[in-house]
Amino acid sequence: MVAVDHLSKWFGGIHAVRDVTLQIKRGTITGLIGPNGAGKTTLFNIIAGHYTPTSGTVWLDGEDVTGLAPHELFGRGLLRTFQLAQEFHSLSVRENLMMVPAEQPGENLLNAWFRPGRVAARDAAIARRADEVLDFLTLSHLATERAGNLSGGQKKLLELGRTMMVDAKIVFLDEVGAGVNRTLLNTIADVIQRLHRDEGYTFCVIEHDMDFIARLCDPVIVMAEGAHLAEGTAAEILANEAVIEAYLGTGSKHARPKSAPAAGGEA
Questions:
Q1: What is d(CA 62, CA 76) in angstroms, rounded to the nearest whole number?
Q2: PANTHER family, alphabetically (predicted)?
Q3: Which of 194, 215, 178 is nearest to 138 (CA)?
Q4: Is residue 247 within 8 Å of 255, Cβ to Cβ?
Q5: CA atoms of 116 and 236, how far apart (whole Å)
Q6: CB 3.0-4.6 Å disulfide test: which of 50, 126, 150, 232 passes with 154?
Q7: pTM reported for the whole predicted model
């Protein structure tokens, strides 16, 4: 579904992404892990159009989309969330969802003046969809709450809800568990699994919680020092000597961790 071919990104003298070639297959929940500075978020930003690669190609459904702007990729069904939630904090939770669909008739002043019925009908349809999404997320009781008042985990759920307001094909989740308590993290995992199973979503997930990755993701891709290091099931990755060395600086077969250590900070 999404493929990157010999992708590289330089920031001055820093080679943040090094000749990465990989695929994210349709219908998967793909995990992307790696230690600090591995280039994971930079790779996300290139795929989602926030950065232009120094070299290489990004493909979406067989079409070259390298260098397209985020809003253009959004229109093609490629969405991403951020480690820090990007809510409109002064708007209600429902209003945050209603802001998502593009080209609403009410955005045109002439429609607002001369076609108020059309505007009202579209707004009502979007509001109904927003309420359906809130029910799916079990956030209906917070529909009128200011989004800025939500907890970190609730804001992450709201970001997932935004992807449900449009025709999403693939969603890139950047540290969806960052700053989220275990109960809400389990809720987020349940929502991701339901969207994958019931709505046909494809996901790619950056996360340092290996229990979360093992529960959701197959395959798991590992990056280190900007390069593609390994790929396999979560069990295969946790037993991979090169991965252990990338995280711990040692390849000792006698000191395997039960799970990879957290890779907090800049990805």
A1: 13
A2: CONSERVED COMPONENT OF ABC TRANSPORTER FOR NATURAL AMINO ACIDS, CONSERVED COMPONENT OF ABC TRANSPORTER FOR NATURAL AMINO ACIDS-RELATED
A3: 194
A4: no
A5: 58
A6: 150
A7: 0.82
